[in-house]
């Protein structure tokens, strides 16, 4: 079920039907990451470099260049960790667009879902951003712990991205409380699907399309779980 959902999402990723939302999602992701890069760079130049020069006066000119290179590498690493939170908030803005394309092209005979109100969607996106940001700070700290490091990235992002993207997809068809209950009922499946999203997130350049892939995959997964729920014996007896 998880692999089928992932394959279905990948098959649509570069299709003509996705072109409009593809351009919007990729463009906004790149703009957000560029803004973060310039913001972090200016912050380092404003705070860190003067502090180092005060702490160690009389540094040779080559030390400044070396420090700049080290700072750039650190910033690039930090930006890589910020892709997940950026993905979270952009997904909140475009999930309904992605879901509508998936539902229209892959499930034309079924009733379409309902788009969330804009204000509620923005509130959930901001909450999602905060949760994923906090989780990745924890993951960053765990990178310093031998035997955990890289696994922490996948476990934290697998859980958080799986949880939030699935609930976003489910809330097009269910009340918020019911969507959360369904996610908890299928927690293992949703977590494993989240690990697939985390693996996608770990691939350079391809990870810029994480909002598109994750949203489409979770729409397919929610559809599959809903079919399974309806097929249960207790539903057939009623």
TrEMBL record:
- Membrane topology, from the record: Multi-pass membrane protein
Please list every transmembrane segment annotated in the UniProt record, as residue ranges. Answer: 21-42, 62-95, 124-144, 150-166, 187-206
Q: Report the protein name in the record.
A: CysZ protein
**Which species is this record about?**
Mesorhizobium tianshanense
List, alphabetically, the InterPro entries matched: CysZ/EI24 (IPR059112)
Is Cytoplasm tagged as a keyword?
no
What keywords is this UniProt entry annotated with?
Answer: Membrane, Transmembrane, Transmembrane helix
* Cellular location(s): Membrane
- Establish whether keyword Transmembrane helix is in the entry: yes
Any Pfam family hit: EI24
